[in-house]
Description:
By secondary structure, this protein is α/β, with parallel strands linked by helices. The protein has one domain (2-193): Uracil-DNA glycosylase-like domain (Uracil-DNA Glycosylase, subunit E, 3-Layer(aba) Sandwich). It has helices at residues 2-13, 17-20, 48-54, 61-72, 77-83, 108-125, 135-142, 148-151, 179-199, and strands at 39-43, 85-88, 129-132, 156-158, 161-163. Helix 1 runs antiparallel to helix 6. The longest helix has 21 residues, at 179-199. Bound molecules: iron/sulfur cluster (SF4). Residues 12, 15-19, 25, 29, 90-92, 110, 113-114, 117 line the site of iron/sulfur cluster.
Amino acid sequence: MSDELTHIQEAIQACQRCALAGFPIQGPPIFSGPADARLMVIGQAPGRVEVNATHKPFSGSAGKRLFRWFKQAGWEETDFRARFYMTSVTKCFPGPNKSGRGDRAPTRREQALCEEWLLAELTLVAPEVVVPVGKLAIERFFGRGRRLAEIIGGRYQIDGRIVIPLPHPSGASVWIQKRAHQALIHRALGHLAAVRRELGL
Ligand code: SF4
C-alpha cells in the first residue's frame, strides 16, 4: 500500500486540474503523514502559510487552534503529525476570499476535481478514524444541507470507520465563538479522547 500511496502522492504533486480548468489556485498540494496512519484529518484546503512557507497541513493560525483542540484530546502536535495523516478536500490554496475575510471556499467543481485524490488516500491509508474539519469536509461524509450544530459533537460510524467531525478552527469563523457551539466542540474532543484510549492511538 505504501508504494501505491507514494505513486498517488506523486500524481497529486503533478496535478494541474484546477489550474487547467481556470481556477486561481496555488500549489504545491499539501498533505502529510505515514501510509499506515490509523487516523486521518481532512480539512477544507490549505492556506497561504502552508503553500508558501511550511508545506505542512494546518500550520497557520487555524492550525494552532486545531492542535490546541487535539491537545485537549490527549495528543501533542509533533507526535500527532508523525503518526497521523493530514489532508484536505482540495489540496491547493484556493486564494483569498473576495470579502478579504479568510480564504476562498473551493467550488463544487474543484472539490469534484480533487475527489479522486482524497478517495485514493482514504482507500490506501485506510484509517480507522476520520476527523473531517470544517463544513466542506463534513459535507463530504454527511451530505449537503445539514446544519453543523446537528453534526458536531457526535461520533459516527461511516463506511466501517469512526468519524468525529470538528468545525473549521479559523479565527474568521463566527461559528466557533458561540457558547453553545463551544459545548459541541468540547463534546467532540471528548469523543476523540475516548477513541484515543479505546484504540490506543
Ligand atoms: S486542488 Fe486538487 S485537483 Fe485541484 S489542482 Fe490541486 S491537487 Fe489538483
